[in-house]
Design goal:
The complex is a heterodimer of chains A (317) and B (516). Chain A has 317 residues and is mainly alpha-helical. Chain A is 72% helix and 1% strand. In chain A, helix 4 (68-92) packs antiparallel against helix 10 (196-223), helix 7 crosses helix 8 and helix 11 (234-244) packs parallel to helix 13. Chain B folds into 4 domains: 1-92 and 172-253, Rossmann fold, CATH 3.40.50.300; 101-170, no CATH class; 259-346 and 433-516, Rossmann fold (3-Layer(aba) Sandwich), CATH 3.40.50; 358-431, no CATH class. The chains are: A mainly alpha (317), B alpha/beta (516).
Chain lengths: 317, 516
């Protein structure tokens, strides 16, 4: 027992566990957002776009004001507005949700690079002080669990809370039932007095906020700087995590953590000079994602009306 | 059954529901024209009419899904305006839709809680609802487990959940829209018991149907709708099935039999030899089906839904591969043939789910007509589609099969159900098939369209084709068949000549009793 405990409390191992959660949080936030819109019957392929916008604005506003809290508040507003825009296209105009999501991603990656160059010019990014790590007394001293869960920034603790609230929301509340019925059988929901259109708008706004805050976490809490295309596909990974986690908050929590651990592992492996080209190590989390997807492919849990626009009053028979 | 409901008809003050002069327009189309309907407490009122006669439209007005252009609605003596489903619910009107309004992934109790703040807001007390449901279901003789996930329940049970949902929400007038169309005969009998039970407790039931025998069996009074008008309002005792049919269709329709018998030495065109199918769950769905269909014969497979009929039809059309067994058509072994090879060998397939397997709804009628033969002359020439030839080919079919449409360029989805089925028939039979495989060909069709489909099948028979009819409707089986086989749990229990068959013995066989 003793040698194991000693091994677990070496700085390298503790660092690995703490980094696993840190790398998982942005994806977790976005994927939890995805639970809201997907269970209400709406796709959000544009998570990558929401995240990169959150990264840039989170960084810029924190840099300008010196306060990460103001920047997070602003990012929430930006995410809500972007969610409303997406809702207008997907719910009201009923455009193809996949095409619109991809367009949103391409647009946002381009827009953020453009804005970044206007603001900071070409060259190295300035730095801000990232959110400090807040170790919870006593709990953070537990081997393994301590560094994993309780040596994190405050945004991580808020994320745990969001996971719990989301789980209660979908399993215990009337609102959760409204969301689920809008995603499974919108006609039925409407006959029971659920406003499907409003429910879906609320869903995409929540999703937008969680995705942009997830993006902001990358620049303000994890690194303290912004680089072009810094989300590097994490929005797409969040989509995969959503499916692997079966659109269940705890499933998403676990799946995101698994990805974070793989990511942390590959970063650390790069430091040792193994004779493996680092590109292969970078692939590791993505390969893991694919393998898990294959293992879970049989048990799909997609809402029945996912991606189908809802027409009030129904189609004529 | 009881005469009290019939003697009360003059006293409108006691009426639970009065609809007066209801008019609904869809653009230029008048769906309901000055329609009147009166329902009393404890009464079973049938609303009879063909598809498109305006029954569902009228009920959508009651359910608060449509607002009428004219007319008034009186509930329990008060004139009311129903602007939303919630208004309707508050007035004690509960609707059981033809397509269930349930969320399959949730439990029965959770389904009841949706949109109902009185169950607790924002935290519905699901456990309390479960208890209340148990009580309610006992009180009304509706056996349902409130904790069950809806998707695990049978269709009949899901329907009971819908009724329970309406009752829980305080419904005193229960509208059942074509409730028997998806039920087995046994489940239908169970539903009728429930309806009688409900009305004995003072609830009113509006029973929407186009099935004459059911309407005659269950209702106290009958309102007949045709093309948006009420053509009659009668007590059951005053009328007959025949009279109702004329009122509903507007003319007398015939169920004439195909007279000339099948010659003894007719060639056996279709032979199924020991067809066996074990599905992915390792369940043996078909257990050695042996069957023949002769030239110029209609051979029916009767049976309750879910005894292997879907799998058998899929295997014969090539959509599914049998685990073992042999299928020959006119001496040619098609056991491993692709669907296309089967069509070329002379198979015509009229699937039960026409939307899924019979046509492509988003394509035009023209495209649907040529979809199976798009490479044949004159529709295509050296690989290029010939537009004029396609149009004239399509227009001929529209004329021959009396398909009601504005143009052959319109999408198949814009046709009514009956005309869609005619489209499928026209395409399939235009190839001059030697084997017609028809599964539930009249499913969901009104009397007129059903009659047309049956006429065409008989024409095929008389022209010398082999027709295999898979049906759960005994009326259809007895009207059309030369021979009847009964399928039960993937086995053919017996094959009987039409003249020797009785409804009693076929009905017994359908429930699996071979010597009763």
């Amino acid at each position: 027992m003793e040698p194991i405990l000693n091994f677990l409390s070496t700085p390298i191992v503790e660092g690995f566990f703490s980094a696993s959660m840190r790398l998982a949080i942005p994806i977790m936030l976005a994927a939890i957002g995805g639970i809201f819109n997907e269970r209400a019957g709406l796709s959000n392929i544009g998570m990558e776009g929401f995240m990169i916008l959150g990264s840039l604005f989170g960084f810029v506003i924190a840099y300008a004001t010196g306060s990460i809290w103001i920047s997070i508040a602003a990012v929430i507003v930006i995410g809500a507005i972007q969610g409303l825009i997406m809702g207008y296209f997907e719910i009201t105009l009923k455009v193809n949700q996949v095409v619109f999501g991809i367009t949103m991603n391409l647009f946002c990656v381009g827009l953020t690079s453009f804005l970044y160059r206007i603001i900071f010019g070409v060259g190295n990014s300035p730095r801000i002080d990232p959110l400090p790590t807040l170790s919870i007394p006593v709990l953070s001293k537990i081997p393994l669990i301590g560094p994993l869960f309780f040596q994190q920034t405050i945004l991580a603790y808020i994320t745990y809370l969001i996971v719990i609230i989301t789980a209660i929301f979908f399993s215990r509340t009337a609102w959760g039932l409204n969301f689920i019925s809008s995603g499974e059988n919108p006609e039925a929901a409407e006959t029971l007095g659920v406003d499907v259109i409003l429910t879906r708008y609320i869903a995409i706004v929540i999703s937008g906020i969680l995705c942009t805050v997830g993006g902001a976490f990358l620049s303000t809490a994890a690194t303290g700087l912004f680089v072009q295309n810094m989300t590097a596909g994490r929005g797409y990974i969040a989509l995969a995590i959503l499916v692997i986690g079966r659109r269940n908050p705890w499933g998403v929590f676990g799946a995101a953590l698994l990805f974070g651990a793989a990511d942390a592992l590959q970063l650390r492996t790069q430091l040792f000079s193994f004779k493996i080209p680092y590109q292969f190590l970078v692939m590791l989390p993505y390969v893991l994602c694919m393998v898990v997807m294959i293992l879970f492919s049989r048990t799909s849990s997609a809402p029945a009306a996912l991606g189908e626009p809802y027409e009030r009053g129904g189609k004529k028979e | 059954m009881d005469n009290t409901t019939n003697t009360r008809q003059d006293n409108k003050a006691e009426a639970r529901l009065i609809m007066e002069g209801i008019t609904v327009n869809y653009g230029d189309f008048v769906a309901n024209d000055n329609v009147n309907l009166v329902v009393y407490p404890g009464q079973i009122k049938a609303l009879l009419g063909e598809n498109g006669a305006g029954k569902t439209t009228l009920m959508k007005v009651l359910a608060g899904l449509l607002h009428p252009e004219g007319g008034r609605i009186i509930v329990d003596g008060q004139e009311v305006s129903i602007d939303s489903p919630q208004d309707s619910q508050r007035l004690g009107i509960g609707m059981v839709h033809q397509h269930f309004m349930l969320i399959p992934k949730l439990t029965v109790a959770q389904n009841i809680c949706i949109g109902l703040k009185s169950t607790g807001y924002p935290f519905p007390d699901v456990r309390k609802v479960e208890e209340e449901l148990s009580e309610l279901s006992e009180q009304y003789n509706l056996l349902v487990d409130p904790k069950a996930i809806v998707s695990t329940l049978s269709i009949g049970t899901q329907q009971r959940v819908e009724i329970l949902k309406a009752l829980y929400r305080g419904a005193k007038i229960l509208i059942l829209d074509e409730p028997t169309s998806i039920l087995t005969p046994q489940e239908t009998a169970g539903l009728f018991d429930i309806i009688h039970f409900l009305t004995k407790r003072g609830n009113s039931v509006i029973f929407i149907s186009h099935k004459l025998n059911e309407v005659m069996e269950i209702s106290d009074r009958i309102t007949v709708l045709r093309q948006g008008h009420v053509t009659a309002e009668l007590a059951k005792q005053e009328t007959t099935e025949r009279q109702l049919a004329i009122l509903m269709v507007g003319r007398e329709f015939q169920t004439e039999k195909h007279l000339k018998p099948v010659p003894e030495n007719a060639k056996e065109l279709v032979c199924l030899d020991n067809i066996t199918y074990i599905d992915h769950r390792k369940v043996s769905v078909l257990n050695g089906i042996n069957l023949t269909v002769k030239a110029g014969e209609i051979h029916s497979i009767a049976g309750v839904d879910g005894n292997g009929q879907v799998e058998l039809a899929s295997i014969l059309s090539g959509l599914l591969h049998q685990t073992k067994g042999k299928f020959t058509l006119n001496g040619k072994d098609l056991s491993k043939a692709s669907p296309k090879e089967r069509l070329q060998a002379g198979l015509a397939h009229i699937p039960s789910d026409r939307h899924k397997y019979g046509m492509i709804l988003d394509l035009s009628m023209e495209d649907n007509f040529i979809i199976e033969g798009s490479e044949r002359e004159p529709v295509s020439h050296r690989g290029i589609l010939q537009k004029d030839a396609i149009t004239s080919f399509s227009e001929n079919l529209v004329k021959d099969y009396d398909i009601r449409c504005k143009s052959v360029k319109q999408k198949a989805s814009t046709l009514s159900g009956g005309n869609q089925q005619k489209l499928v028939l026209a395409r399939e039979l235009s190839r001059n098939p030697i084997f017609v495989l028809a599964m539930q060909p009249a499913h969901g069709l009104d009397v007129g369209a059903t009659e047309f489909v049956h006429k065409k099948l008989i024409e095929q028979r008389n022209a010398g084709s082999a027709v295999l009819l898979i049906s759960t409707e005994l009326d259809e089986v007895f009207d059309l068949s030369d021979r009847i086989s009964v399928i039960y749990e993937g086995r053919i229990l017996a094959t009987i000549k039409r003249e020797e068959a009785t409804r009693e013995n076929i009905g017994l066989l359908m429930t699996g009793k071979t010597n009763g």
